[in-house]
Amino acid sequence: MNKQNHLYGHLACAFSIFVWGTTFISTKVLLRSFTPLEILFFRFIIGYAALWIACPRILKIKSIKEEICFACAGLCGVTLYFLMENFALTYTLTSNVSTIIAAAPFFTALFDWIFLRGQKPGIRFMAGFITAIAGIGLISFQGNSVVELNPLGDFLALSAAITWAAYSVFTKKIGEYGHGTIEATRRIFFYGLLFMIPVLAILPIRFDFEKISNASNLLNFLFLGLGASALCFVTWNYAVKVLGTVKTSVYIYAVPVITVITSMLVLNESLTLQSFFGIILTLIGLIISENKFKKQASA
């Protein structure tokens, strides 16, 4: 049964990463009519409503400590992560952001070791991390792309990677409380939306029914809200609960790979030799890191 749960955990994690790797297409379409903050707010409102419909049971919190954990998860994994990632894209190159955020598994392993008394990141994990980052760098910096430092944007991207690592730690703790994954994810979304309110006061959103009801915009919002937010956060949180924070976070290395493959299939973009070698390196890094934790778990 334990092996079966682990299999489901890996499948759930792979599904989340696959969907998240394709979201750039929907986001790219929506950015023609909406601001990054509007896209973020509407997608999580849709996701929050969907989770209520899927499981209308009220979550019973047992202590203040649990409530604080949910609040911190919502703040880190929804509000801060997506806001910093979106704003980072306005201050620095997309290639910088994609490469820096891929460092999230490193910070996750570090936080897991420090705060959850998990396994100490060893040489094998670091070798996998460096290999994957090298591969992601090859994918990100293409053609005329150059390495260009933009302190504010790069700092925001690094902060986003750190907050996602913190989110992984909080979701691991939440998983130990024994709540249903859907109800727990919905609670996280609630706090994520709640913490967006101060930002909305500074950067108010526009509710343009005509734009939202446009068939293309509506379908993309539904994909981001129902698929990339509601469903994928549930499957991701389930994977964290079953596999642990580190083994789950390693899958993040595959996001740029999925993005490149999706670009080829949907946008008819060509696969360069540099991207090909980048994909190979990234997958090798993922396998090295993942196998390291499988061996230690078996021991």
TrEMBL record:
InterPro entries listed in its UniProt record: AA-Vitamin_Transporters (IPR050638), EamA_dom (IPR000620), EmrE-like (IPR037185)
- What Gene3D superfamilies does the record point to? 1.10.3730.20
Q: Which Pfam families match?
A: EamA
Q: Where are the transmembrane segments?
A: 7-25, 37-55, 67-84, 96-116, 123-143, 149-167, 188-207, 219-238, 250-267, 273-289
Q: How does it sit in the membrane?
A: Multi-pass membrane protein
Q: What are the residue boundaries of the EamA domain, all occurrences included?
A: 8-140, 152-288
Please indicate if the UniProt record lists Cell membrane as a keyword: yes
Compartments annotated for it: namely: Cell membrane
Keywords from the named record: Cell membrane, Membrane, Transmembrane, Transmembrane helix
**Family indicated by similarity:** Belongs to the EamA transporter family.
Protein's recorded name: Multidrug transporter
Cellular component per GO, a single term:
plasma membrane
